[in-house]
Design goal:
285 residues
Length: 285
């Protein structure tokens, strides 16, 4: 599409490469086709780009101004690439930069910048084999007042039942939870690698219910808590955890057979370095 302002919304139901030629402003885009590429647009709408039951969609280098969701999906969406986008909310106490509300598998969420929104990147349904690498999420920073706690979101979030996520080299500031894996049902997420992330000035830097996972080489500073994890068979190693107001590493186990390991972390300036509770074992403290 050529330079201009197009007030119509786009509905894409078949394979197409939709690439902006110059500065092209459009309203929201809905995608239900496979192997669609949307690249280089400025998009302004309540919902920027929505996907439904797609395979192989690429969303590249767009600027998205939104009210409710910048990028979102429903149904089952496979092999999605979301890379290089700038996503800007209209209200820092409401809305999601990305909200994957269907099963989203084998996605690559790379090098996006998200700001002025409550939540950054959310996977609301158990999903698998997703890579979240190199993104920046700037929250609204309401971390000093207990009255504003409901107006603080999550930078990167997924739920129990999710497996094999790689959450790598992201920067998250000003959120309630920088990186969160929440247990809503009876299951536990597993097989995560959380590495190389920088989480500063959040309430909780990394807040997890998780098993069989690795949390390593993250830099976590000036939060309330560095790592707060519930689970079994996790390795917490080589993180730099400094100047957190409550605790550096908090580990909770639920069974006497649960075992977690800590190794090689740098802990300094925290109110307390460790808080350990439950009947299981923590090796390395």
């Amino acid at each position: 599409m050529n330079t201009g302002v197009y007030k119509e919304s786009l509905n894409i139901a078949k394979q197409i490469n939709l690439i902006a030629n110059g500065t092209v402003n459009i309203n929201g885009v809905s995608i239900s086709g496979n192997a669609v590429k949307v690249q280089g647009f400025t998009i302004t709408d309540n919902y920027g780009i929505t996907l439904s039951n797609t395979n192989g969609v690429s969303i590249l280098n767009n600027i998205i101004h939104f009210t409710l969701n910048g990028i979102s999906d429903v149904g089952t969406n496979l092999n999605l690439i979301v890379s290089g986008n700038t996503i800007i909310g209209s209200n820092p106490t409401y809305g999601n930069g990305m909200a994957f509300e269907g099963m989203t598998n084998n996605a690559q969420i790379l090098n996006n910048k998200i700001s002025n929104t409550l939540h950054g990147i959310l996977f609301d349904v158990a999903s698998t084999n997703n890579i979240i690498n190199g993104n920046t999420v700037q929250g609204n920073g309401l971390i000093s007042s207990s009255d504003s706690i409901d107006e603080q979101g999550a930078g990167i979030y997924t739920v129990d039942g999710s497996t094999n996520f790689q959450i790598l080299n992201n920067v998250v500031t000003g959120e309630r939870d920088g990186i969160a894996v929440q247990q809503i049902g009876s299951g536990t997420a597993s097989g995560f690698t959380i590495s190389g992330n920088i989480c500063t000035n959040n309430l909780n830097a990394i807040w997890l219910t998780l098993s069989n996972s690795v949390i390593t080489k993250n830099t976590l500073s000036n939060n309330n808590e560095g790592v707060d994890i519930v689970g079994n068979n996790n390795m917490i190693s080589l993180n730099i955890i400094t100047n957190n107001r409550i605790v550096g590493i908090a580990i909770t186990t639920k069974k006497s057979t649960d075992t977690n390991t800590v190794s090689g972390n740098t802990l300094s300036g925290n109110q307390g370095n460790y808080y350990i509770v439950g009947p299981g074992k923590v090796i390395g403290t």
